[in-house]
Hints:
Number of strands: 8
CATH class: Alpha Beta
Number of domains: 1
CATH superfamily: Adenoviral Proteinase, Chain A
Keywords: Hydrolase, Protease, Thiol protease
GO biological process, one term: protein deneddylation
Number of helices: 8
Strand content: 5-15%
CATH topology: Adenoviral Proteinase, Chain
Order of helices and strands: EEHHEHHEEEHEHHHE
Distance between the termini: 45 Å
Protein name: Ubiquitin-like protease family profile domain-containing protein
Domain Ubiquitin-like protease family profile: 14-176
Structural class: alpha/beta
Strand order of the largest sheet: 3-4-5-6-7-8
CATH architecture: 3-Layer(aba) Sandwich
Radius of gyration: 18 Å
Amino acid sequence: xxxxxxTILSYYDVLIRRSDLETLDDRSWLNDTIIGFYFDYLERTRxxxxxxxxxxxxxxxxxxxxxxxxxEDYISxxxxxxxxxxxxxxxxxxxxxxxxxxxxxxxxxxxYSKTEFACFHFDSSCNANAEIAAKFSMKIFAFLxxxxxxxRSVHCPQQVNSYDCGIYVLTFAEIxxxxxxxxxxxxxxxxxxxxxxxxxKRRDIRELIRILRSxxxxxxxxxxxxxxxxxxxxxxxxxxxxxxxATQTSPTSPQAEPPSRNYLGILVAxxxxxxxx
Length: 277
């Protein structure tokens, strides 16, 4: 008898099942559902709190659709989710080449910065997604009408295994969001704390899901506590660390990782979700 894939949490338009939760086990690869959930959570609890700064965190599903679609057709799939006056746009980038399939083998983080006229690529596995990031960046620039923009591959902490790429995407995104509270740019963001924070990220997300299941109000308070701790760690790290330098690099051979799962059986309408103000 086939076992039912139990629903663990319904968070706005994200439905987390037990099979999704299992990707948070040690030595497992995060799937698009967990990455999409945490991006949605960060946008609702962190990005919307950044005064005078417009930040959007795009879901893995919508990122994949945009990556495999020509810029002139973007408006039909994203509506007004992304606008030209958006200051920063975070994309979880997968190396899958299928329009409706998230079954790739590696995750990285791409961030568009309006004020810096650039896309910044953070890859924890030797720039395995560099070529994909460059091609997608050109589409973003074309859609937003940005001329003379450039793509920067950022020197960042590297995973020491073949399965933590998704964890590093979430860790980088969280640290950079915290940095945007005081420094309204991407270049020069200190990521020295990423390795330490990535080591507990699976446990932290599991705990967040547990709190959200029991009490959404407690989750908001928990978010504030985690954010305060992150800010303290960032300040302490900055005092003793060398700021990462963003330099242009060329792609290298990727480190093979098992494919992420395909959870793209949802409507395009769900891609257009936005946090409540």
